[in-house]
Design a protein that fits this description.
Length: 203
């Protein structure tokens, strides 16, 4: 059973509940479930802008049912310095964006990317019910909507988040939770809608 942030929920517990380590890690990165209490380090060298990829379906669910407060993993733009280490694709919002878009354009009905995302949204509904954000009938409605959602509903969106607007909310992700030890990743728990813009890069 999920425990709200602060109650000691662990990766091992989620794995025992039927989620593999790789699936849980991806759910973190798609900002669908909190990995553990958000206790990341403070940001030493703040970027000007942070980016995060979500889908139209996930965005709509948060706006409609979850008080328009988004839980996001985010990262700055890719490093241009060819000598510096870069984030791997699973923690690069731009790479994630185009992976979603490519699978939809190709009509890949067996897309593991989309199916992991769909599973994460279902899991997220149970989390929100246990946190008291939604009631059981609302959870069941969300689950029905997610299960019936066509591929087009998983069209990607890029969130553009000025750091200055969220400096009090941003934490650097723990190294143990990052996609790579040197990945530059951040977590924002409870990102208000008026603190970011939304872009569609493929239009």
């Amino acid at each position: 059973m999920y425990r709200p942030p602060g109650s000691g929920e662990t990766l091992e517990r989620r794995q025992r509940d039927g989620y593999s380590e790789s699936t849980v890690s991806l759910l973190f990165r798609y900002h669908l479930i909190p990995p553990k209490p958000v206790r990341g380090a403070s940001v030493l060298h703040p970027p000007l802008v942070l980016y995060s990829t979500t889908t139209k379906l996930a965005y709509s669910l948060v706006q409609r049912y979850y008080r328009a407060l988004h839980y996001v993993w985010c990262a700055p733009r890719p490093e241009f310095d060819r000598f510096a280490l870069r984030n791997p694709p699973s923690s690069d919002p731009i790479s994630l964006y185009w992976r979603f878009h490519r699978d939809i354009e190709d009509g890949d009905e067996h897309s593991s990317q989309i199916e992991r995302h769909r599973s994460g949204l279902l899991f997220g509904a149970s989390v929100k019910e246990e946190q008291g954000v939604i009631d059981l009938p609302t959870r069941e409605r969300i689950e029905a909507q997610v299960r019936r959602a066509p591929m087009g509903d998983f069209s990607p969106l890029l969130l553009v988040i000025p750091y200055s607007a969220v400096s009090s909310l941003v934490k650097a992700a723990d190294v143990a939770d990052a996609a790579k030890a040197m990945a530059e990743e951040y977590i924002i728990d409870g990102l208000p809608r008026d603190c970011f813009d939304v872009l569609e890069l493929h239009r």
